[in-house]
Write a structure and sequence with these properties.
alpha/beta; Transcription Elongation Factor S-II, Chain A; Rossmann fold; 19 helices; binds 6-O-phosphono-beta-D-fructofuranose; binds manganese (II) ion; transferase; phosphatase activity
Length: 452
């Protein structure tokens, strides 16, 4: 008991919907049920498609899935106990063990339930239950309930995508003439484009359209003052210090891993950044990490990744399709690769990765730089806890550091560490919704070699 208390003092509690009126509470009470309703509606609207593909069996599967999801929605709304998963997938046992872990933390008195448990766990659990509902109802088990919203969001950002591809091709043509300083400036710009791309997620908008309309490069200077912590110089140093002479004496850059977040416009910004890193000699290889199941509405799956490259390639615009050709050849040559791992769709804080997914941790250790995109990754990096704003980022990571890493995140959850004295208080007075509006962002770097 004494040891438990000491631990609790070291680590603040998890954000949870049990705090009435909190962002977590409002998410669980309002946003998650809305997302579930939209999922049910999507499945219903696809009834004819299921009939055409699978006949009457498809229609029966549609009905059963809707039944499962309506029950899930009711469990959520009435704060019922969290149930074990029973779909026998590769991560089912881990999920059920995690439920036991949550139950031990809560003690025996109350069951683990939607409003009483950590928000991070509950929110991840909802998406995993959606997957279970689909999976248990063949023949529609492969259906991605969020696919329509993701493709729509890609097409709605078309002008912004075109302007970004045109920009990329412009300096790709002049790359050899760029000085080191100019290269660094371009790097900073494209890092920021990828950062702000994170505004376009479909979870914060409960599935409503949220695409990029304005030209991303032109908006950067106006957005600069909204970056609360900017460690991008350290990211640049991590990249340049990974450049080493290869066997042939030529300088060989390092490996960059990008832990992706959303499909649609954000993914395009990540691919543009990755393209720049390779063509500018700042990365020899980029490994993309995505989700193995549909997740938080807009997160990238393997299908989204390939689809986006194919769409870019097939575009009716010279520079956009040229960009797509380049991306496809990076994939073919193995310069780019896509990976998924069940851990990315588990509810764990990343400080648990070394113990709970040692294979993934070991893979990440091979990177010279890991970019973690988005809000959910930030929540998992910092454990989604009630940290004081001035706690250093390194400390909130609680020992997680497979390689130098950087979080590129727009703020959409009420957690933020690594601020200067007074910075949080000022923001609270100026703009009370600063942590959840997506208007502010951080570029936060941590290296395992730095003092902890
Ligand atoms: O796509 P992102 O940036 O991870 O954001 C996901 C969103 O979903 C949430 O988890 C809330 O539902 C927020 O943390 C965030 O707004
Ligand atoms: Mn997301």
């Amino acid at each position: 008991m004494a040891a438990n208390q000491a631990l609790r003092q070291l680590v603040p509690p998890s954000l949870s919907a049990k705090v009435e009126g909190s962002f977590a509470y409002l998410t669980v009470r309002d946003r998650l049920p809305t997302i579930l309703t939209r999922v049910i509606d999507t499945i219903h609207r696809n009834k004819n498609k299921f009939f055409e593909e699978f006949g009457e069996e498809g229609v029966q599967a549609e009905k059963r899935t809707i039944g499962f999801l309506s029950k899930l929605r009711n469990e959520l709304l009435t704060d019922k106990p969290v149930l074990v998963l029973c779909d026998g997938l590769e991560d089912t046992d881990s999920w059920n063990q995690y439920l036991q872990r949550q139950q031990r933390l809560l003690g025996e008195r109350d069951p683990v339930s939607w409003f009483k448990s950590p928000w991070l766990y509950i929110e991840c659990y909802m998406y995993r239950r959606i997957q279970e509902a689909i999976w248990l109802n063949p023949p529609i088990s492969d259906f991605d309930v969020f696919n329509e919203s993701k493709t729509q969001s890609f097409f709605e950002s078309q002008q912004a995508v075109i302007s970004l591809c045109t920009y990329l091709q412009g300096f790709n043509r002049n790359m050899d003439d760029l000085s080191e300083t100019q290269l660094m400036e371009q790097f900073h710009k494209l890092l920021q484009v990828s950062l702000w791309g994170n505004r376009c997620d479909l979870s914060i908008s409960a599935g409503m359209e949220n695409s990029q309309k304005a030209s991303p490069i032109d908006s950067l200077s106006d957005l600069k003052s909204f970056i609360l912590v900017d460690d991008s110089n350290m990211v640049w140093s991590a990249l340049t210090s990974a450049q080493r002479p290869g066997e042939d004496g030529k300088i060989t850059p390092g490996r960059v891993d990008i832990v992706l977040d959303n499909a649609g416009f954000e993914l395009v910004t990540d691919l543009v950044l990755a393209n720049f890193l390779v063509s500018a000699g700042l990365a020899r290889e980029v490994r993309f990490h995505g989700k193995s199941i549909p997740w938080f509405v807009s997160d990238v799956t393997s299908h989204d990744f390939q689809w986006t490259i194919r769409q870019t390639l097939a575009a009716n615009h010279k520079w956009m399709s040229k960009t797509g050709v380049q991306w496809q050849s990076y994939v073919r040559e193995g310069v780019w690769s896509y990976h998924d791992h069940p851990f990315w769709t588990m509810p764990h804080e990343y400080c648990d990765m070394a113990g709970d997914a040692p294979d993934l941790y070991a893979t990440l250790q091979g990177a010279d730089l890991i970019l973690f995109k988005g809000d959910l990754n930030y929540r998992k990096l910092t454990g989604d806890r009630e940290w004081d704003h001035m706690v250093p980022f390194d400390r909130a990571l609680r020992g997680f550091g497979p390689a130098p890493l950087c979080s590129l995140r727009t703020l959409k959850a009420n957690i933020q560490v690594g601020l200067q004295p007074g910075q949080g208080e000022n923001l609270n007075t100026q703009d009370p919704s600063w942590m959840t509006s997506g208007k502010y962002a951080v570029v936060q770097f941590s290296s395992p070699h730095r003092e902890q």
